[in-house]
Fold:
Amino acid sequence: MPDPAFLPRVTVSGHERLDLDDGWSAAACEPGAVRGTDGLDGLAWRAAHVPGTAAGVLRDAGNQATESLDSEDWWFRTRFQGGAPEPGEEVVLRLGGIATLSEVYLNGQLVVESESMFAAHAVDVGDRLEGVNELAIRCRALTPEFAVQRKPRARWRTRLVSDGSLRWFRTMILGRAPGFAPGPAAVGPWRQVWLERRRDIAVEDLALRTRIEGDDGILAVKARLRELGETPADAVEVELDGPSGRHVGSLEIQRGDRGVTVRGSLRVPSVARWWPHTHGDPALHDVRLTVRIGSRSVVVDTGRVGFRTLAAGDRPDTDVQRDGLDLHVNGVRVFARGAVWTPIDPVGLAPTPRETRVALEQVRVAGMNMLRVPGIGAYEDASFHDLCDELGLLVWQDFMFANLDYPFTDEAFRELAEREAAELLAGIAGRPSTAVLCGNSEVEQQVAMLGMDATIGRDPFFGETLPALARAAGSDAVYVPSAPSGGDLPFRIDRGIANYYGVGAYLRPLADARASGVRFAAECLAFANVPDQAVIDAMLLGTPDDFIHDPRWKAGVPRDVGADWDFDDVRDHYLALLFNIDPAVLRRADRDRYLELSRAVSGEVMAEVFGEWRRSGSASGGGLVLWLRDLVPGAGWGILDHRGEPKVAYHHLRRALSPLAVWLIDEGLGGIVAHVANDGGAPVSARLRIALYHDLEQPVGEESQAIELAAHDGFERNIETTIGHFVDASWAYRFGPPAQDLIVASLERGGDQGMEILSQAFRYPAGRPAAVEPADRLGLAAVVETVGDGTLRMTVSSRRFAYGVRVEVPGFRPDDDAFSVEPGGSRTVVMRPIAAGNQFEGGRLSALNLAGRVEVKPSGEAIAPAVAASHAAVDPR
Structure:
């Protein structure tokens, strides 16, 4: 059964919790130099944070881990006050996780030994407590263990990690992968440590599972309780409260050798369903158990549940390995889009609850509805999954296995892996956000790409054991044995689950996004996304002419180990393709413009690909960008930088993935088609307006039509049908010069202040604007007003087409950026203060087709400075 430490959602009235998060110190020593706790005082101790890591200790001391932290023993210790338990009371030491081979000593006595970073522990320490107590944790060096010869030997080797012996140890690959995450390695008590004083009852196991019958919700409850006092529990009630009202029912009590088992179910008529936020309200209901013990009642708060149905496709015989993933929630198709999750704090591994909430809210705001917790990382804690439930974010959960030949024939290793899986499932199986369980990352692909028999990568542990454990836990999540998988070879992207890098690392044209027939991309579109200038300035500490070859820059750019190219080269390929320029020439001649276009190009490519996959005629069920947030400063795969600030690519994706969106797709000789999606749960009445412009300013055609979109509905229309006649919109026939060089599709809705732009898309039949223009010709301007709580509203307007407008206001963060403004139109941007009390003291605007910058004064007046000389002088082609 799962360790009770894996029930963090449970709080029991009368129990007390003492977080052991103060007074910690840490010290390193040679492997085995200190055994037990007798020699600890002779070590060189430094202040430490727990939860935290050895790398965090070094960072806090102003140092950087330059060598592998796996080569030393690390000790952590603290002192705390706490007396022996009262009669009928027990005191439990709980440890959320220690990386990796660890020993825990309380007052010099060994109380825990662990071989897994992912294991939580709960141990009764009541008979070991004194007035003042010392808790010491030893994290043993892994490097000496790597040298030990173990059987079975690996059947294949991967270049992903620096030492293939890592396959024997249940720890995180991030920090030990030279190409994209070389360090620091995770070492230390990275999860919370606390004491729990229990009275009356202890909750040993708990399972809340929901299902839907007709319009009703059914909550099934099963719990195992252990009575701590002499008075037995004589009645247990379950109470559910939330948007479906308050419902109460009695549970059956059964006594046995292992304690008291309570079980039963509760029917909730016309239950409010949980939806991904893109498709409705993620309705949640609080659940409590009330245990009557004599004349007293003990309340067990068990967290919240959601009611929803989940299916892998629209047919009962859907086979994910054949058909791919096409999620249906509550009978409605959900185009799943999002990103691969990365640790918020990859050094200390201990983000604050607020930092986690901010990161997940950024995901939600971006129109994403799914996150993948990848097999190269670590399991997230209950607060992460609570927030995903609350915010309506689906979770694709990998088990922590990736790329390696894991020794499942070793009985001890297999038992450890099975226990790990069971403990994880106990915490997430009943959650509405848990949508996909994936056995591993790239194990099948690793074998097949080495030219070996593909079946070697399909270990029964992934094909049989894990799905059986998921069923036993009552999970209704879709199970995938490996990502990628399906088809005659696991990396055939038109079958099953794909890792799609056709557009991206393999330098395929944008048309490949459709031609490849991707069913579902568990990861895709990895680009070296360029961060904003503040990150670059801090990284380079200077401005070398050819900075892209500077080691400080390259330290932040991912690469495949052994490859003679990196992801800067990938981005440059598409920069040349989309803008018809030579990136190397531009970089040497005009560094700033190279960076501006580089920031834009990866976001534009991502938006194009998702537009192809999201259209109604596509067989794709969605895709997850690799990845959400950079691990280190630089041009990493993240659409957020290492600080959590959005890059330009984030804003392009946010517009492309919005639940209510319009986008344009060039069908060549078939013209240009406007696609509209209303993923949300309410109908929308709107107007689709198509406008054509010549010379990026002169109107040459405009028509609109009213459209009614039902909930979870879509619409598509060839723009020439709306315009009413043939205009060679895509400039495919080329009977002469293009009649229009800009096409604008706007989804609008009328209001008291005129027409409101709900979504807007642009297309360039003759190519993206390449030339820069002086501010007085472009006519870019802005007006700023304060609207309350220090929030600003900036209205940006432009006489001509303004392409890729950036907004920079010190101390404020815009809710939109890198947007374009229709000729004669305007866009409104809300800007929120980064810190309380920030005042607007001016800002500036830039655009990809603007020479120089436009300064915005506090009065709201926009003034144009002199044209930047470099922009005026350079022809990037």
